[in-house]
Amino acid sequence: MSYYSWFQNHANKHQNIVQKVKKEELISYFRWENISQSDIDFCPLFSEGKKCHEMEDLNCYLCACPNFRFNDNATTLKSWCAIDSKEGRQLEHEGIIHQDCSQCTVPHHESYIKKKFDTNWLEIMKACPSKDRKDKES
Hints:
Blueprint: H1 3-20, H2 26-29, H3 32-38, E1 68-70, E2 79-81, E3 89-93, E4 96-100, H4 110-116, H5 121-124
Antiparallel strand pairs: 1-2, 3-4
């Protein structure tokens, strides 16, 4: 699955939840302890009882980070971090470079979510699909 396909699919899942939950309850609804039980199809890890990041108070409202950038059409650098998070790293597989965010918890803290909050997930994430290729790509 391409990054863009996942991105659009996830936006649809997110919007379906937003439509059924009161705006003032959205952030608390997306707490891992709740959403992993109430919307098991939101994330494939939920059916296994796993978290994407081992942290207390994990919030899934910004599953996928507003700082993540991807370009499915790039030949070498497919994804990167716009803020070069010190917890992130890049992995190369078969000559293609992908961002590894597994150690970064930035978007999963409620304080961060409140700063970026919008009921329209696509609005928060609008810079993620990128036609620009980062200068590191050859």
